[in-house]
Amino acid sequence: MKESKLILKESPTLQDFQKYVADMVAERGFEKESVPEMVMLLLEECGEMAKAIRKTQGVHTDKNSERFHLDHEIVDVFIYLVDICNHFKIDLEKAFRDKEEINKTRSWE
User: Fold this and answer.
1) SS3 content of the chain, % helix, strand, coil (to 5)
2) Which of 61, 81, 82, 109 could form a disulfide linkage to 21, CB 3.0–4.6 angstroms apart?
3) CATH (domain of 88)
4) Total count of domains within the chain
């Protein structure tokens, strides 16, 4: 197995995460995944996250199913979300800030 050269700096910004995920995708040979594949993988991870949440909340689940760790599943969702942002050249931090400025003007009642 080839040793990874990936390093995520201490206290990373969203841009640091985006760069890390881009490098990770290249290092692991995932750069040829299509957008539909990336979205399906994201949704698959969302399902695993939901199952992990069910287990943490004591909601009945199949006792023979895999054990999911909520923190790991949330990270998997984040990775695929960042990968999709990178594919479309979306600066996630800027998009977050822009969208939140719009949200601040909305009524939430």
Assistant:
1) 60, 0, 40
2) 82
3) 1.10.287.1080
4) 1
Torsion sign (Cα): 92, 97, 101, 107? positive
SS (H, E, C) the chain: CCCCCCCCCCCCCHHHHHHHHHHHHHHHCCCCCCHHHHHHHHHHHHHHHHHHHHHHCCCCCCCCCCCCCHHHHHHHHHHHHHHHHHHCCCCHHHHHHHHHHHHHCCCCC
Average pLDDT, the chain: 92
In a domain? residue 89: yes
User: Which residues constitute the domain of residue 89?
Assistant: 14-104
Average pLDDT of adjacent 10-residue blocks, the chain of 109 residues: 89 96 95 95 95 86 72 96 97 97 92
- Take residue 6 and report the two structure tokens written for it: 């990936």
This prediction's pTM: 0.86
Q: Cα 80 to chain center, whole Å?
A: 4
61, 54 contact by CB (below 8 A): yes
